[in-house]
Design brief:
The protein is mainly β and about 110 residues long. It has no helices and 11 strands. About 0% of the residues lie in helices and about 55% in strands. A hairpin with a 6-residue loop joins β4 and β5. The mean pLDDT is about 95.
């Protein structure tokens, strides 16, 4: 089993920044990357970004390209999502995923 714990969410004004963390423990695998997803009220969960285990390959949803940066520190078993220039439409619960395991999510609210 893999345990994933997200943190770093909160309330921020439009244009602000937040950094989310995803701490992993248990049977993590170097064959899998780590992804960030989000789910807004009344909407389906959607892909945000992913990073390979080595950290050298990243992909982003078009909606966050140029504003969000995914990274990882394998020594700390932690992945990060740096979110800049936040918009109200970024409001959602953000989840991280490794293999087929999900964290519990962290709420991000972007509002004046």
């Amino acid at each position: 089993q893999v345990q994933l714990v997200e943190s770093g969410g909160g309330l921020v004004q439009p244009g602000g920044s937040l950094r989310l963390s995803c701490a992993a423990s248990g049977r993590t695998s170097s064959s899998y990357g780590t992804g960030w997803f989000r789910q807004a009220p009344g909407k389906e969960r959607e892909f945000v970004a992913t990073i390979s285990w080595s950290g050298d390959i990243t992909y982003y949803a078009d909606s966050v390209k140029g504003r969000f940066t995914i990274s990882r520190d394998n020594a700390k078993n932690t992945a990060y999502l740096q979110m800049n220039s936040l918009k109200p439409e970024d409001t959602a619960v953000y989840y991280c995923k490794h293999r087929n395991y999900w964290g519990q999510g962290t709420q991000v609210t972007v509002s004046p």
